[in-house]
């Protein structure tokens, strides 16, 4: 049992380390290489960036979820004296990194993959509106007084054409400059993700060496 738990822990630690390393390599090697693509090969730039994001997502979700699952299994199947807190803390590294990616990275990745972003464009449209028109008061031909015997008249409504600015959401293809700017921003986000996973890897490694059940 102890040997099986040791293998489970080591695979979990390795998964975290590999996932963190993948983001580091992407941030300091792959993304700069993509940004160096000649301006005359914009299509190549976009294809490389899209493939990079797809591969990173695949390794992040697979290795990250694997590490969380294994650390949880190691904790739940360990005897009471082997249920060390580092297993739980290490298991939380991937969910925290995933939450960060969802709020700060996912939308930019989607823009690059789709090669488009949503923009609000205002268009002028003509619409018919009803306006109340005050009716003229009728005066008596005898003493020029205003008729009040029937009370005030209800207002008259007339239709009138007016020009209004109507917002429309439109998808616009990303320019090369915008594409590279988003990619640079994405690189910074990957750095944070790598740091979160790396902290989990470091914690798991230190905890494992001090683990009395291995």
UniProtKB/TrEMBL annotation:
Superkingdom classification of source: Eukaryota
A cellular component term, taken from the record's GO annotations: mitochondrial outer membrane
Membrane-spanning residues: 6-31, 52-74, 86-104, 190-210
Main location: membrane
Gene Ontology biological-process entries: autophagy of mitochondrion; macroautophagy
Cellular location(s): Membrane
InterPro entries per the UniProt record, alphabetical: ATG33
Mode of membrane association: Multi-pass membrane protein
Keywords: Membrane, Transmembrane, Transmembrane helix
The family this protein is said to belong to: Belongs to the ATG33 family.
Protein name: Autophagy-related protein 33
Organism: Pichia kudriavzevii
Record lineage: Eukaryota, Fungi, Dikarya, Ascomycota, Saccharomycotina
């Amino acid at each position: 049992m102890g040997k099986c738990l040791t293998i489970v822990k080591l695979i979990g630690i390795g998964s975290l380390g590999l996932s963190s390393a993948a983001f580091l390599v992407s941030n300091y090697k792959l993304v700069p290489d993509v940004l160096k693509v000649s301006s005359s090969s914009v299509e190549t730039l976009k294809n490389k960036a899209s493939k990079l994001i797809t591969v990173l997502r695949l390794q992040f979700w697979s290795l990250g979820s694997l590490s969380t699952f294994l650390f949880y299994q190691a904790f739940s199947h360990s005897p009471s004296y082997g249920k060390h807190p580092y297993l739980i803390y290490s298991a939380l590294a991937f969910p925290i990194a995933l939450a960060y990616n969802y709020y700060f990275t996912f939308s930019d990745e989607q823009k690059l993959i789709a090669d488009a972003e949503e923009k609000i464009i205002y268009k002028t449209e003509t619409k018919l509106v009803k306006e109340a028109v005050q009716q003229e008061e009728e005066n008596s031909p005898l003493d020029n007084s205003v008729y009040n015997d029937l009370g005030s008249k209800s207002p008259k409504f007339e239709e009138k054409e007016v020009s209004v600015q109507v917002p429309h959401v439109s998808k616009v293809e990303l320019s090369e400059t915008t594409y590279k700017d988003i990619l640079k921003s994405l690189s910074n986000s990957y750095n944070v993700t790598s740091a979160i996973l790396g902290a989990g890897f470091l914690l798991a490694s230190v905890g494992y060496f001090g683990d009395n059940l291995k």
